[in-house]
Design brief:
The complex is a heterodimer. Chain A contains no helices and twelve strands. Chain A is mainly β. Chain B is mainly beta. The chains are: A mainly beta, B mainly beta. At the A-B interface, strand 5, strand 6 and strand 10 of A face strand 5, strand 9 and strand 10 of B.
Chain lengths: 116, 114
Amino acid sequence: AQTVTQSQPEMSVQEAETVTLSCTYDTSENNYYLFWYKQPPSRQMILVIRQEAYKQQNATENRFSVNFQKAAKSFSLKISDSQLGDTAMYFCAFSQVGAGSYQLTFGKGTKLSVIP
Amino acid sequence: DAGITQSPRHKVTETGTPVTLRCHQTENHRYMYWYRQDPGHGLRLIHYSYGVKDTDKGEVSDGYSVSRSKTEDFLLTLESATSSQTSVYFCAISESWGSNQPQHFGDGTRLSIL
């Protein structure tokens, strides 16, 4: 079974600064997908970014980028130029490819606070 | 935003009563999922559906049943609610099997069982 670990329960960052959230995972599969979801106080689950394991290039979406280290099974999220609206819970999630790839396995989340 | 509506948004009920949560989608997506979110656990899959009348169990399915009689509706039922089922429940949908199509989530239902 796959597991996803987020070792930082809470983090804070000054507005306009850069912050990195950590995520490690455990799997015996070679092909899979990784995701970061954001959950603001409104409780919505919003997809931030996704990475396909067979792609070496790190995914980027505006101010959000990932550092994907496949051998180390690490998938960190970097938020640049942090904004007050980035305050939220962030969840790392894993999904394998192929038959049975119906389930997202989530980490326990990191609560990020952006300080003015 | 994906067209996903969960109802009710909030519910308080008593132990032993039956409870049904509804997820309605307007995207015509084939796959639908029910998760629960608890402090310290992230989100965990309860049941999922891969088509009308086609459902299967997830990680934490005990005490829950589901039904899908139409593409757009996926119902989650607690036959006899217990306090351990107090949680926030999320419905999700995806267009295709597998993770090349990400799951999109509803706004959640907060369920309290006293």
